[in-house]
Design brief:
The chain is mainly β. It has helices spanning about 65-70, 110, and strands spanning about 1-5, 10-25, 35-45, 50-60, 80, 125-140, 140-150, 160-175, 180-190, 215-225.
Length: about 230
């Protein structure tokens, strides 16, 4: 759903979607059932000096850890949560999701070495609040800032919801109409969800660390858009 509204400050572009999935195999399997919903609503306000926007996304989840919910089997369990490569739908945070700077992997699903979209809280779902902005600083250069609050929709095995907060800052230089360059980085402050949590380990089974580090990343991207 996409619509355009008017306000005293300027036009607002509103986007939203609602997806429900049931019965699809997960983690590369074709057995076992998972069911869940992925809901998103966003609005971007165009101003004379740039664009500011907000997005809220809710992804259903189940309480507990990967090991508890699977019960030792990946193939035959029925999981009431949205599972899969859903990080690509976040549309903003660089570290949490498939971000605009590097655009490689699936956020936490690959940065922790798993690369499967299965550990790191997929079971627990997400509630994301994202604020984003873009401001032209030169005729061909724009500055972009993103902030995101990352919260689990259902608690982990320790009863924790707070995953963390991320801040991103990056610039885009439009060299030619289809050739552009991006440079920037992000910083993620880990919350209580990551502490002593087996789902934050490389295999989803080892004990989690008591004091997880914050995460930072810098990147550059040069791209030509064909077509």
């Amino acid at each position: 759903m996409t619509s355009r509204l008017t306000s005293g400050l300027g036009p607002i572009q509103v986007k939203g979607y609602a997806i429900y999935n049931h019965g699809e195999g997960y983690f590369g399997r074709r057995q076992g059932i998972n069911s869940g919903a992925n809901l998103s609503l966003s609005g971007d306000l165009s101003l004379n000096f740039g664009t500011v926007g907000l997005q809220v996304q809710y992804i259903t989840g189940a309480r507990g850890s990967k090991l508890q919910l699977e019960g030792g089997s990946k193939d035959t369990k029925n999981i009431g949560a949205w599972l899969g490569y859903f990080n690509r739908m976040y549309q903003g945070p660089e570290i949490i999701s498939l971000g605009p700077i590097i655009d490689v992997g699936d956020g936490f699903s690959s940065k922790w070495g798993t690369g499967n979209g299965f550990y790191n809280g997929d079971y627990n779902g997400r509630l994301l609040f994202i604020a984003r902005s873009a401001f032209p600083v030169l005729p061909s250069v724009s500055l972009h800032a993103v902030g995101a609050y990352d919260r689990a929709a259902a608690s982990n095995a320790n009863g924790d919801y707070n995953r963390g907060v991320e801040f991103d800052l990056w610039a885009q230089w439009n060299i030619y109409p289809k050739l552009w360059f991006r440079f920037g980085g992000g910083y993620y402050i880990t919350g209580n969800w990551w502490k002593n949590n087996s789902d934050a380990s490389f295999d989803g089974r080892r004990p989690g660390v008591p004091h997880p580090d914050n995460i930072w990343q810098f990147g550059t991207r040069l791209q030509y858009d064909f077509g």
